[in-house]
Amino acid sequence: MTGLKDYMVRAIDEEAGILAFAARTTELVEKARTIHGCSPTATAALGRLLTAAAMMGSMLKGEGDTVTVRVDGGGPAGPLIAFSDSRGNVKGYIGNPSADLPLNEKGKLDVGGIVGREGTLTVIKDLGLKEPFVGRVPLISGEIAEDITYYFARSEQVPSAVSLGVLVDRDRRVRAAGGFIIQLMPGSTEETAIFIEEKIKGMKPVTELLDEKNSPEDLINLILPGFKLRFLASQPVNYSCSCSRERLEGVLLNLGREEAEEILKAQGRVEFVCQYCREKYEFTGEDVRRIFESAENPAS
């Protein structure tokens, strides 16, 4: 762990038509690893998705807006889900956190291998409207960054360059994590696009840059030297779950009294485990009766 705080920044060059986002998510990804007990490759896969979701959350306009990014690749990791609001609160889930594979032919963690390459990436934006926006694209590589790039191009028609990385140390802890998203707005030129592409090709991997203590602002300045960048906002980003006993009471009510009674008979209690933070919630027979009675006879 670097001891440096996690945060993300946004920048714009209106003249050149460029929007840039960059984030350091080392502590966030380490917390996710600890909660879920991830293998090194699972840590890299989930960490990349959490980092992407954090930056996509910062693109949202409204205070209550949220984005969920789901990857179903058919690999041993199972489904991956990352959820973010517009304030930098991020949480996630991986179906099989112990899934692991040998390093790939480049000597890197085989994220595409455990995620799988036969499936879809789905983005759900809840913008407070009657229906959420849902965009779905086929996976390109399962490596996450290329898949997010393809999503932006295909579903939102926004040319983008996306880089995401997680560096896992020998003791399995997260040493560095983060990434960037560079987007071209209407009016930007092909020359600008080629310049950015070449610049990114010649750069060190994003985890190496973060491990060398480069900040999110440094990342953007390295990719876009000479541009008239205006940094718009900086905000903390953290792993944060909003589950509560009250919310789980709602889940219990949705089960229905009959099913809840059957679970009580079999187990003596009803137990829920939050998939995002692994917090356990137990309801005794007395709790269950009280909850259903309160719902059926609300105080007038």
Strand line-up in the sheet with most strands: 7-6-3-4-5-11
Order of helices and strands: EEHHEEEHEEHEEHHHEEHHEEH
Structural class estimated from helices and strands: alpha+beta
If you compute it from the alpha carbons, what radius of gyration comes out, rounded to the nearest whole angstrom? 21 Å
Q: Give the C-level CATH assignment of the largest domain.
A: Alpha Beta
Beta-strand content:
25-35%
Explain how this protein is built.
Redox regulated molecular chaperone. Protects both thermally unfolding and oxidatively damaged proteins from irreversible aggregation. Plays an important role in the bacterial defense system toward oxidative stress. This is 33 kDa chaperonin. GO terms for molecular function: protein folding chaperone; unfolded protein binding. InterPro entries: Heat_shock_Hsp33, Heat_shock_Hsp33_C, Heat_shock_Hsp33_N. Belongs to the HSP33 family. This protein folds into 2 domains: 20-239, Hsp33 domain, CATH 3.55.30; 245-296, HSP33 redox switch-like (CBS domain Like), CATH 3.90.1280.10. It is built from 10 helices and 13 strands. It has 300 residues and is of the alpha+beta class. It is globular and about 65 Å long. The strands form 3 sheets. It has a 6-stranded mixed β-sheet with strand order 7-6-3-4-5-11, with helices on one face. It has helices at 26-36, 40-58, 111-115, 145-155, 190-201, 206-211, 216-223, 245-255, 257-267, 285-296, and strands at residues 7-13, 18-24, 66-72, 80-85, 89-94, 120-126, 133-138, 160-168, 174-184, 230-236, 238-239, 270-273, 280-283. It is 35% helix and 28% strand. A hairpin with a 6-residue loop joins β12 (270-273) and β13.
